[in-house]
């Protein structure tokens, strides 16, 4: 068919460098004249190239070739990093982001150098509102606050008073380590509720809601950090119902929503009928870590106070970062990059599961993640996670002990959080092999000593 000839020609020109990475394609009109075909034929060819993630569109500007960066080569040679939670520089489309920043200056130059609304620019909030609708979050732009990363939203919410007049914060155990550091810094009373790979004990959760003055319950329902697992629909509906019954707010940290593969996996916020769920979304794990952007969907009762605290924190989020995100959401580049990341991280997570199956047994156990970027590895009893992590660092293999994900008053699990966001399949295989090798080296003297003591006792 004619459109296939147009597509193949454009692809050949892209692959050969005739149209360079980041370069602009000829206009639809120019291509239709060149190929003596209709504009619809050219449009279909371009749509096919977009589906293959070779080009992207910028409204009122044209189509551009996506750049495949190799910045991951900047990492120290030989390092295997299971600990980091920031995207691999090698998968960040730097040139596209640069293009977005340039377009932001062109389109929004008049508002980039003044203080804006503390809750974010109206046009970006509308774009985020449309983006969140794909995740069954139907909130008008007036309920959305743009923040300088999801971490800022957590800081503001933990600091400000809530309408329920309560002060303690309930957190899952284990929990995102950054949240625990934040609560400790603020001197907030934190209470733990057990979460396992099977989910939450809803009876225990209800006891806390009923018996303690819980201001809000902080939860990561999707792709939990560090477990990697997700809550069921039944659990999410129950949490929303209990929040209304006991006047407890829910802070739902949905930091990896854009990596979800299950179209039926809805957030707690979608089951909220009482205005007690605060929904937080991060844009840092997909393609914009350095621009520090996130969004909070707020119940009406919290908006005035959140605005006040946000303004006192930074007056307003960077206007340039906001404009860049708006362009990436509007052009479809953000979603296309998210699609690519979802596939890439899925391949890596499968590689981690298979490597652990080959190399780790006899007391090791990988909690099977639902997706995302993290999985928790449980260690044999005699092997301390901190000791193993220190020994692995000497070999330039970096892991994250899950002891940092527990409150001091709670007995921590003896495990490691393994992340795939900064590794490739070859590094995962080698890294897991080295975890086993190093564990054997640490445990070998203990086995020898145990046998020696047994021999002395027998004699």
Automatic annotation (TrEMBL):
Keywords: Aminotransferase, DNA-binding, Pyridoxal phosphate, Transcription, Transcription regulation, Transferase. Pfam families: Aminotran_1_2, GntR. Residues 1-68 form the HTH gntR-type domain. The keyword rRNA-binding does not apply. GO terms for molecular function: DNA binding; DNA-binding transcription factor activity; pyridoxal phosphate binding; transaminase activity. PROSITE patterns: HTH_GNTR. Its cofactor is pyridoxal 5'-phosphate. The keyword RNA-binding does not apply. InterPro entries: Aminotransferase_I/II_large, HTH_trans_reg/aminotransferase, PyrdxlP-dep_Trfase, PyrdxlP-dep_Trfase_major, Tscrpt_reg_HTH_GntR, WH-like_DNA-bd_sf, WH_DNA-bd_sf. SMART domains: HTH_GNTR (SM00345). Gene3D superfamilies: Type I PLP-dependent aspartate aminotransferase-like (Major domain), Winged helix-like DNA-binding domain superfamily/Winged helix DNA-binding domain. In the C-terminal section; belongs to the class-I pyridoxal-phosphate-dependent aminotransferase family. This is PLP-dependent aminotransferase family protein. The lineage of its organism: Bacteria, Bacillati, Bacillota, Bacilli, Bacillales.
């Amino acid at each position: 068919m004619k459109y296939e000839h147009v597509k193949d020609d454009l692809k050949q020109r892209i692959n050969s460098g005739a149209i360079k990475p980041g370069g602009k394609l000829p206009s639809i009109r120019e291509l239709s004249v060149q190929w003596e075909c209709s504009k619809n034929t050219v449009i279909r060819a371009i749509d096919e190239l977009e589906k293959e993630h070779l080009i992207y569109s910028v409204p009122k500007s044209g189509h551009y070739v996506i750049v495949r960066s190799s910045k991951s080569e900047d990492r120290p040679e030989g390092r295997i990093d299971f600990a980091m939670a920031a995207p691999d520089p090698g998968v960040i489309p730097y040139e596209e982001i640069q293009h977005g920043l340039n377009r932001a200056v062109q389109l929004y130059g008049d508002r980039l150098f003044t203080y804006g609304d503390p809750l974010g620019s109206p046009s970006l909030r509308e774009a985020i509102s449309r983006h969140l609708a794909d995740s069954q979050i139907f909130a008008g732009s007036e309920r959305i606050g743009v923040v300088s990363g999801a971490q800022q939203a957590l800081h503001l919410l933990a600091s400000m008073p809530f309408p329920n007049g309560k002060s303690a914060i309930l957190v899952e155990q284990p929990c995102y380590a950054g949240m625990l550091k934040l609560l400790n810094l603020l001197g907030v009373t934190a209470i733990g509720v057990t979460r396992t790979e099977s989910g939450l004990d809803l009876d225990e959760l209800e006891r806390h809601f009923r018996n303690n003055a819980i201001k809000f319950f902080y939860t990561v329902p999707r792709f939990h950090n560090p477990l990697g697992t997700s809550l069921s629909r039944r659990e999410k509906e129950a949490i929303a119902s209990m929040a209304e019954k006991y006047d407890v707010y829910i802070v739902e940290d949905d930091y990896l929503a854009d990596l979800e593969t299950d179209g039926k996996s809805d957030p707690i916020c979608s089951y909220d009928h009482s205005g007690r769920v605060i929904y937080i979304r991060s844009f840092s794990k997909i393609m914009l870590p350095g621009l520090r952007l996130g969004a909070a969907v707020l119940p009406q009762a919290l908006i005035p106070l959140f605005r006040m605290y946000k303004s006192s924190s930074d007056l307003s989020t960077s206007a340039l970062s906001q404009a860049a995100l708006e362009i990436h959401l509007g052009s479809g580049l953000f979603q296309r990059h998210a699609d690519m990341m979802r596939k890439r991280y899925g391949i890596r997570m499968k590689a981690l599961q298979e490597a652990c199956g080959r190399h780790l047994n006899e007391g090791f156990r990988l909690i099977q993640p639902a997706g995302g970027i993290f999985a928790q590895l449980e260690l044999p009893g005699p092997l301390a996670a901190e000791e193993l992590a220190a020994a692995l660092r000497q070999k330039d293999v970096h892991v994250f002990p899950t002891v940092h994900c527990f409150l001091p008053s709670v007995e921590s699990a003896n495990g490691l959080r393994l992340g795939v966001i900064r590794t490739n399949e070859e590094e995962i295989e080698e890294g897991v092999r080295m975890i086993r090798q190093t564990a054997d080296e640490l445990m070998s003297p203990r086995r020898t000593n145990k046998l020696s003591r047994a021999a002395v006792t027998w004699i």
